[in-house]
Amino acid sequence: MKRISILIPTYNEEENVELLSSEIIRILKESLSNYTYDITFIDNCSKDRTQEIIQRLCVDNPNIKAIFNTKNFGQFNSPYYGLCQTTGDCTVLVCADFQDPVELIPTFVAEWESGHKIVCGIKIKSEENKLMYFLRSCYYKTIRKMSDVEHIEHFTGFGLYDKEFINVLRNLDDPSPFLRGIVAELGPNRKEIPYEQALRRAGKTKNNLYRLYDAAMLSFTSYTKIGLRVATILGFIFSTMSLLVAFVYLILKLMFWDVFPAGMIPVLIGVFVLGSLQLFFIGLVGEYIININARIMKRPLVVEEQRINFSCPTDDKPAR
Fold it and tell me: Where does residue 91 rank: exposed (0-12), middle (13-18), buried (19+ CB within 10 A)?
């Protein structure tokens, strides 16, 4: 009997985890009763009652597992690490806030059974802030044009992954993984399923401007070369222009010494323009260096504090 693993990353989701696990189990029982299952929560050191509730769920149902991290290791490392710990024939990654429609799990499984190794949930509409959705759309289109890898627009990681692809993730040994980019670059035989993203059921979103910027920069520095290439090209162009302007300025001054004032305005403009460009591209190069540095240090994705029910055999337990 095939087994479906469900992975749910959490951080301060005390109002959602119990209801979400109940809803997933109900769907598995009603629509996928011919499969066994396990549900794994990987918690990023929540500060509320999330871990307490998950512990109780694990006691009540041995098919529910838990990994508790020693601290918050970020929105990318923890889900990626959790995927690598699953052992089902396929794994479904679901957010804990009900924005990912768990009703699509049977659809994902059906597409998987038809031969697709990866089934991606794609947001075609969202009830989130319209400005944020517009900015995300612009970002996806921009990064798609800049990158050699064809990125998947409005893909957040919600989807199903075959165990063969999970093995690929385990063997990558990437200390700064960006799952969305990895799926686009390495994911075989992919199927995209559209859905409308609902509002968060309860609690507050953990995505602030800094986290969104962090995600954008990780994608940009991992999958594009254009930033450094643009810096090199613009540096060459502006250097050439500066030399030409300086040469013309010198000739005019020598020819019209008394009537051509030297002045400070061209100098100031040149200093500010070139200085601002230098600062911008030094910052951009710094982002690439941060990415390189993280990979060189080879730090673990997460450090576990505790794991629950991983020694319990679940292969022969049908969905209930």
Answer: buried
